[in-house]
Amino acid sequence: MPMAARRRTRIMDIIMLDNLLGLDDFLVRAALAGLGLALATGPLGSFVVWRRMAYFGDATSHAAILGVALALALQLPIGVGTLLVALAMAGTVSTLAARGWAMDTTLGVLAHSALAFGLVAISYVPGVRADLSTYLFGDILAVSKADLGFIWAGSLGVVALLVWRWQALLTATLNEDLAHASGLNPDRERLVLTLALALVVAVALKIVGALLIAAMLIIPAAAARGLARTPESMAAYATGFGGLACLVGLRLSLWQDTPAGPSIVSAAAVIFALVAVFGRIRRA
Amino acid sequence: MSLLAAQNITVRFGGEAVLSDVSLAIEPGEIVTILGPNGSGKSTLLRALLGILPLAAGVVTRAAGLRLGYVPQKLSIDRSMPMTVRRFLSLPVRVGDVEATLALARVGLPGLEQRQMAGLSGGQFQRVLLARALLSAPQLLILDEPTQGLDQPGEAGFYRLIEEVRRETGAAILMVSHDLHVVMAASDRVICLNGHICCQGSPVVVSNAPEYRALFGLGSQGALALYQHRHDHSHEPDLVDAHGRAPSDPHHGHNHA
Fold first, then answer.
1. Which domain, by its residues, includes A171?
2. Domains delineated in chain B
3. Is A69 contained in some domain?
4. A178 neighbourhood in chain B, CB within 8 Å
């Protein structure tokens, strides 16, 4: 069955189920899932942009597919599998970076190998091949109440972690020696970001899918840069843009029957372009 | 009691000793300059003293509860990170508006709070770094080549500011430089470094030491003449250090040739 047709029947199933529970309940859940994700990707994405960790985000999120395979093989919850593998990948990358490996090449190798191995591994799990696009592109319209709980718990966890370490994270991002001289440990702050990134990957998999998680981190933050004057305002704008992109993408997906993850990222990209153009006009 | 002391410290990078057997102590209120050619281990020494680099041997001791201010050699704020001067002053410890305003005024940059760090000139940037370091009321201020990239007047102005800070706050100052002239005039004590301590003492003693002259490839006259000329123009005659003595008055003991 072609993907669009399959998706339509899936949506019809969900709508029929939800009609019993309450009209459009799945839309509310989808919207809440997107907003929950944006809460975490705004501030974390800002750090990804400031520290030039874009490829790092790619490697970690691509590894999530491997996590899905692991979870299905071991009959673990998908969220647990992706979290474990994302943590392992983020930890590996962090360690290699600290040892002074050439990061561009190393991350290129890791990001694409993780994806390739994940796709190969998942093909061994019976009955999943048909659902593969769900993991690659997300399935926000099928978010369950349990998923929603996982998404919000994960996002709030990330936000709490970042708020707690905020001053130290900013100082270490500016200059590691400066952080050291102030009695902070830059290695620990890097670990905090690594942990936060793995959490966001696990949270975002259901929403935008493994291929586009890094986009949700980078694009709203990049759009926010044009408007912000302080790190805090950039994180706030990024959260706002991320949430807006989720809502707009969701509607696009529903009306045009486009895949949800790519629709959300497309919306974010349009926001980025609008901010860039208006910013230029305003400055001119 | 010394504010900061190193005893026989050795630092290795991958087996190779970059610093060997270095001992020094910083006393309250003095200005000490570490001088040496490129690659002599100056920044390494500072980073070892700050506890950033692990020691292969030796020990660094700090006075109990030492308040330390640090101005790093290079701080490039990525353009992707928006950062006002005011916000920067609150990293990592948040400070009040009044304190921030006073600190900026102290370094000669009143009213710059809302400017973006990325839009500052080199000299302004260094002064903001200094203002941030001063906000912790340091007993010891450590600066790594603070005037790199500044022109001659900017450099002289910055060292004058350092002297004023020392006079007002009594803070000891430890800085690194690879340029000779202005530093020599502004220091109480000079440590000449090339992987190990070649010689140390007052600027006059060091500039006459054969080790120093060999290190910088100087003839018998060059640096001394240069030093004294700079000195005549920039040194303030009434300058005294925290102990009430005139630091290293080079007018005694030698003359222009």
1. 23-283
2. 4-25+37-199+223-234 (3.40.50.300)
3. yes
4. 70, 72, 75
What's the domain count of chain A? 1
Question: Does A7 fall in a domain?
Answer: no
For the domain that residue A243 is a member of, what is the CATH number? 1.10.3470.10
Select from A49, A171, A174 the Cβ nearest to the Cβ of B80: A49
Q: How far is A166 from chain B (nearest CA, A)?
A: 9
Q: What's the complex ipTM?
A: 0.83
Task: State the best of A178, A188, A272 to mutate against chain B, taking most chain B CBs within 10 Å.
Answer: A178
Query: Is A268 part of any domain?
Result: yes
Domain annotation covers residue A136: yes
Q: What is the pLDDT of residues B194-247, one digit of tens each?
A: 889 988 888 888 878 888 878 777 655 444 444 443 434 443 443 334 344 444
Written as six digits, the tokens of A56 are 């790092």
Stretch 98-127 of chain B: residues touching chain A, C-beta under 8 Å = 114, 116
Instruction: Give the chain A residue whose CA is nearest to the CA of B81.
Output: A50
| B84 CB within 8 Å of a chain A CB | yes
CB contacts, 8 Å: B50 with chain A: 177, 180-181
Query: Using CB atoms within 10 A of its CB, is residue B201 exposed (0-12), middle (13-18) or buried (19+)?
Result: middle
Give the distance from residue B11's alpha carbon to the nearest chain A alpha carbon, in angstroms. Answer: 17
How confident is chain A (284 residues) per 10-residue block, as mean pLDDT? 62 55 69 94 96 86 90 88 90 79 80 89 77 85 88 96 96 92 90 92 90 93 94 97 95 88 94 90 71
Structure tokens at A268: 């974010």
What is the structure's pLDDT at B115? 94
- pTM of the predicted structure, to 2 decimals: 0.83
